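Good morning,

Attaching, inline, the backbone tokens for the sequence recovery test we're adding to the shared suite. The designed sequence is right after.
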């Protein structure tokens, strides 16, 4: 068995879930500025996530779910997932984002597993709070390490794919480190750099 771990936002989907939700409230640019700072490694991921989610307080959960179920899929995502699985990989995604988005994507794409956070809601609206196991800069790496330990998959048989600073922690546990349309902070630690919005380029590099 081999393992391929993908980031979700701006990797498996074309854009950031939080920004699509923020558009509904007319605060997309404000949230984008915070996201960009975090992905460049200038702002702690936990702090940036809390700030952004707080700005969504009051947004109707039904609207959240509708938006999340219709996020634009990155070019080549479904094909790449299927081809990796044919090659013996278990394909999973790690997201600092939310179950509202990763669960429907995983079902459509046929992912083997998805891991993400949970938006807290009350009376049908977001409270501006978030919880889960992927809240911190090192969360993805720590989870990847635990999955490797449970499954017996080695670092050499692990691929990690991401675009931002909070994906760095995955790289130290991956034999192939792929920076996909990524920030410079991630490219510096990558074995493979793909600057085209088409995930099938990964298949030519593994």
């Amino acid at each position: 068995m081999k393992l391929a771990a993908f980031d979700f936002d701006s990797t498996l989907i074309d854009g950031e879930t939080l920004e699509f939700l923020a558009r509904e409230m007319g605060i997309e640019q404000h949230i984008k500025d915070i996201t960009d700072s975090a992905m460049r490694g200038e702002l702690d991921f936990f702090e940036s996530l809390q700030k952004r989610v707080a700005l969504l307080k009051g947004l109707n959960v039904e609207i959240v779910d509708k938006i999340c179920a219709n996020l634009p899929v990155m070019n080549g995502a479904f094909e790449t997932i299927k081809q990796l699985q044919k090659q013996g990989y278990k394909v999973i995604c790690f997201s600092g984002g939310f179950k509202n988005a990763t669960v429907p994507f995983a079902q459509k794409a046929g992912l083997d597993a998805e891991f993400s956070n949970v938006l807290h809601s009350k009376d049908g609206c977001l409270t501006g709070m978030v919880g889960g196991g992927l809240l911190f800069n090192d969360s993805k790496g720590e989870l990847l390490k635990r999955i490797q330990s449970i499954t017996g998959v080695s670092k050499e048989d692990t691929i990690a794919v991401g675009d931002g600073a909070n994906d760095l922690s995955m790289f130290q546990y991956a034999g192939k480190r792929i920076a996909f349309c990524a920030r410079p902070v991630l490219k510096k630690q990558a074995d493979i750099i793909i600057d085209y919005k088409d995930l099938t380029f990964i298949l030519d590099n593994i």
